[in-house]
Amino acid sequence: MLGSLIEKDITTPDYYPLSLNALLNACNQKNNREPLMNLVEDAVRQALDTLHAQNLAGPAGGADSRVTKYEHRLQEVFNFSRGETAILCVLLLRGPQTPGELRGRAERMHPFEALDEVQSTLQRLMQRELPIVKVLPRQPGTKEARYMHLLGGDAEEHSVAKAPSPAIANNSENSGALLRLEGEVQELRLAVADLKQQLASFRKAFE
Questions:
Q1: How many angstroms separate the CA atoms of 128 and 174, rounded?
Q2: How far, in Å, are 65, 115, 190 from residue 70 at the CA level?
Q3: Which pLDDT tens digit goes with each residue over 5-43?
Q4: Which of 48, 56, 72, 185 is the most exposed place for a label (fewest CB within 10 A)?
């Protein structure tokens, strides 16, 4: 939820803050999400209430609209740099990741010139008075350590998880790619169906 608000603030500022429906769609979108979500409106409202109680999000003030719109308040609470915000956003949306993965996936929000810049950003987030990020133990057979955010608490299960075998890892990657493709195909189908409905309505207006 928070990650979706941050992402849309940076990548689509013309459509931000978000209405409840737009936020629901942002949370349930099929690309740039791991795991994929299928939330309902009540779940979004409850999450917004929780974020509002923590002063991390809430209704946007001064919005010229009849529909209530919502915004994150991450900057007011933490005073992050743009790079720190981008890294945290990707961790919120896609779970624990290596510095290399973070660099590639944060590109739309903040281009890091080198991997060292990502690592120094992670270090700043780890060294805050209340750490925002932690490094996970390097798993056997992996070259890079992964990092996770701590906004939802410290999930120890990530630390003790066993590394998957190469075959399982490959299957997992293939499954993830397949899910993303299926999600994109579904979005295209919905878009085509919407266009057909609009065309039908347009024709009826002249019948």
A1: 37
A2: 12, 33, 25
A3: 999 999 999 999 999 999 999 999 999 899 899 999 999
A4: 185
